[in-house]
């Protein structure tokens, strides 16, 4: 996921090759980072190809409602006798697609606003940052809840769009402060002295130096988006049209009574473990990226 | 002092604008919600054979008011009501003002949030210092990774896990409510004990959810201070390690107070999941109930109160920081 961002900013081929060699070295040094990469790639694989392994209406086994975990059903079955693992895998596409859309929008809008405000400074900066501050202050989840009464977030794309448009505030602020410090450096001064256009300076000089930072923010935005939408479905304020992890959580707790009887417990645990694993993977990858992009942190 | 007053005035003005924007937006968003419970009631009564005027009267009696006039007129009414702290009538609890409903719910949010946050702050800060000092050792690694993980996992996952363990697998803690109905509410040992028992899971979840953030913040703050010149100077002068450590801790903790005030505000928003899972009747649960019942007034009121809490927390954080850290007061260094 990070590769396109970096490659687009990287420029020359040799630089890119060196970069990938550096990535490989950092990954190799600590096994935990490899684990993180494997987990994240595994989830990506599950989202893209997972649903293909199952028939479209999932088979129901009405003789085994809330069946306990077994070889046939590793996480048991739900209230209709559908295999929970199958639900988890088919539900992952919606969750991960939304997360991807959200992350892209968050990062593109946030970076654009941050770069523009930081580079132009002056009046534009003041206005944009006031808006950003306001966005950051408005509580996100309650706002989403109120919005969910008018929007129905029917498709994953729509959901991602709304989450992305609500989430760019933090990225904008961070990118702006990076821009403010970068624009005073020599190479930007030189570019300005050469009379290069603003778009050139921002696109070719500023953005590449910030790409790693932006990529990291994008990964963090992915987790944020997963939590937000799973949470919304879990709370039950959105209509259950698609099968996804949040719907599973909601049905397990408020339908199956997983908080009082152990029957629905495996049904509850499957999506929880998936979220925990995804978080772990992303935390480990971000940790590795931190070291790739901040050479000062490296302990040789 | 005038400096302080000017700062305060600026913050208050900005906060008021913020609240004005939020109320305006929420007013119009909420009015555009499809499915009006009062209209539905009215139509049902007419269908049952009541005359339109009688049905209108019946609905007004039931809910205490009826939205009349243009949208603009309603907006002006709403805003002028707001100045008197009158948020309108709740539809879910007929005859009771929204502000009354909300203020009675607020205590169930404020107390657990406060308890959980302070608990995690104390533990997290101490652990953060260890994580910073031992950052190249195994203990530091474990602390840092556990911090990142707990910081990364959403509150509802923690709440559900704790709930599954302590109410389903080992049923030792209650699943919902604020106290056992067996006890008379009041200042008696049984009721207070029951309050604490019922609050254990929500408080524990708040604490665990914010603990990771404290470790990470304190660790990076301590690492920064450790590199400062005055620490090096103190070490070179041969001052005892314990005293050097006091220098470090005192300087490193300053930025954390800002985050403390901010996170207290933010937790009002996050309390929604915990209150829903443990069925704890605070502001978050009110907001969800309001949404599920299409209770405009309650929805708007709960959202407004959560926003005001965050705005106030922001102001307090900034002012507090300028009081405890003299370096901020002198210049524009705070930005």
Automatic annotation (TrEMBL), chain A:
InterPro entries: BP-dependent_transpt_permease, MetI-like, MetI-like_sf, OppC_N. It is a multi-pass membrane protein. Keywords: Cell membrane, Membrane, Transmembrane, Transmembrane helix, Transport. Belongs to the binding-protein-dependent transport system permease family. Residues 92-286 form the ABC transmembrane type-1 domain. This is Peptide/nickel transport system permease protein. Its main location: membrane. The lineage of its organism: Bacteria, Bacillati, Actinomycetota, Actinomycetes, Streptosporangiales. The keyword Oxidoreductase does not apply. PANTHER family: D,D-DIPEPTIDE TRANSPORT SYSTEM PERMEASE PROTEIN DDPC-RELATED, OLIGOPEPTIDE TRANSPORT SYSTEM PERMEASE PROTEIN APPC. The chain crosses the membrane at residues 34-54, 94-116, 136-153, 214-238, 264-286. It is found in: Cell membrane. It holds the Pfam family OppC_N.
UniProtKB/TrEMBL annotation, chain B:
It is found in: Cell membrane; Membrane. Keywords: Membrane, Transmembrane, Transmembrane helix, Transport. The keyword Manganese does not apply. The chain crosses the membrane at residues 12-30, 113-133, 153-174, 186-208, 253-278, 298-321. Residues 106-317 form the ABC transmembrane type-1 domain. InterPro entries: MetI-like, MetI-like_sf. It is a multi-pass membrane protein. Its main location: membrane. It holds the Pfam family BPD_transp_1. PANTHER family: OLIGOPEPTIDE TRANSPORT SYSTEM PERMEASE PROTEIN (PTHR43376:SF1). This is Peptide/nickel transport system permease protein. It comes from Streptosporangium brasiliense.
């Amino acid at each position: 996921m990070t590769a396109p961002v970096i490659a687009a900013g990287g420029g020359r081929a040799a630089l890119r090759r060196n970069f990938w060699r550096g990535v490989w070295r950092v990954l190799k040094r600590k096994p935990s980072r490899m684990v993180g990469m494997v987990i994240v790639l595994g989830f990506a694989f599950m989202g893209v190809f997972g649903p293909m392994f199952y028939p479209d209406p999932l088979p129901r086994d009405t003789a085994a409602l809330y069946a306990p975990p077994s070889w046939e059903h590793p996480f048991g079955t739900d209230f209709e006798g559908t295999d929970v693992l199958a639900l988890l895998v088919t539900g992952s596409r919606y969750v991960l697609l939304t997360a991807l859309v959200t992350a892209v929008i968050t990062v593109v809008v946030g970076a654009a606003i941050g770069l523009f405000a930081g580079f132009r400074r002056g009046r534009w900066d003041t206005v944009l940052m006031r808006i950003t501050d306001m966005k950051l202050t408005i509580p996100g989840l309650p706002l989403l809840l109120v919005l969910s009464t008018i929007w129905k977030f029917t498709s994953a794309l729509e959901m991602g769009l709304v989450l992305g448009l609500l989430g760019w505030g933090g990225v904008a602020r961070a990118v702006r402060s990076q821009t403010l410090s970068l624009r005073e450096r020599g190479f930007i001064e030189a570019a300005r002295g050469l009379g290069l256009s603003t778009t050139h300076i921002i696109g070719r000089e500023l953005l590449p130096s910030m790409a790693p930072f932006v990529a990291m923010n994008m990964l963090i935005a992915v987790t944020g988006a997963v939590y937000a939408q799973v949470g919304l479905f879990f709370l039950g304020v959105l209509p259950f049209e698609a099968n996804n992890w949040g719907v599973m959580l909601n049905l397990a707790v408020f339908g199956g009574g997983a908080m009082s009887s152990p029957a629905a417990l495996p049904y509850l645990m499957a999506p929880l473990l998936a979220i925990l694993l995804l978080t772990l993977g992303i935390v480990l990858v971000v940790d590795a990226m931190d070291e790739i992009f901040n050479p000062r942190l490296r302990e040789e | 002092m005038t400096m302080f007053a000017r700062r305060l005035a600026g913050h208050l003005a900005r906060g008021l604008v913020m609240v004005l924007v939020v109320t305006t937006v929420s007013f119009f968003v909420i009015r555009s919600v499809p499915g009006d419970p009062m209209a539905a009631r009215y139509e049902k009564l007419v269908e049952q054979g009541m005359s339109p005027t009688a049905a209108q009267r019946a609905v007004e009696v039931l809910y205490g008011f009826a939205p009349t006039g243009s949208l603009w007129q309603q907006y002006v009414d709403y805003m002028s009501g707001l100045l008197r702290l009158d948020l309108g009538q709740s539809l879910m609890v007929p005859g009771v003002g929204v502000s009354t409903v909300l203020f009675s719910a607020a205590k169930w949010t404020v107390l657990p949030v406060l308890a959980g946050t302070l608990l995690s702050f104390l533990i997290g800060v101490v652990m953060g210092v260890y994580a910073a000092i031992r950052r190249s050792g195994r203990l530091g690694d474990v602390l840092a990774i556990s911090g990142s993980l707990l910081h990364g996992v959403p509150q509802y996952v923690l709440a559900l896990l704790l709930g599954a363990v302590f109410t389903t697998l080992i049923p030792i803690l209650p699943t919902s409510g604020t106290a056992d109905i067996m006890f008379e509410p009041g200042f008696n040992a049984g009721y207070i004990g029951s309050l604490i028992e019922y609050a254990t899971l929500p408080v524990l979840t708040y604490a665990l959810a914010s603990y990771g953030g404290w470790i990470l913040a304190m660790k990076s703050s301590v690492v920064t201070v450790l590199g400062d010149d005055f620490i090096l100077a103190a070490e070179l002068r041969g001052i005892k390690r314990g005293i050097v450590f006091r220098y470090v801790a005192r300087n490193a903790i300053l930025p954390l107070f800002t985050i403390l005030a901010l996170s207290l505000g933010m937790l009002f928003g996050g309390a929604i999941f915990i209150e829903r899972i443990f069925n704890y009747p605070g502001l978050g649960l009110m907001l969800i109930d309001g949404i599920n019942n299409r209770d405009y007034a309650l929805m708007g009121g709960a959202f407004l109160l959560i926003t005001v809490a965050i705005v106030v927390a922001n102001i307090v954080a900034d002012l507090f920081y300028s009081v405890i850290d003299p370096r901020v007061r002198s210049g524009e260094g705070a930005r």
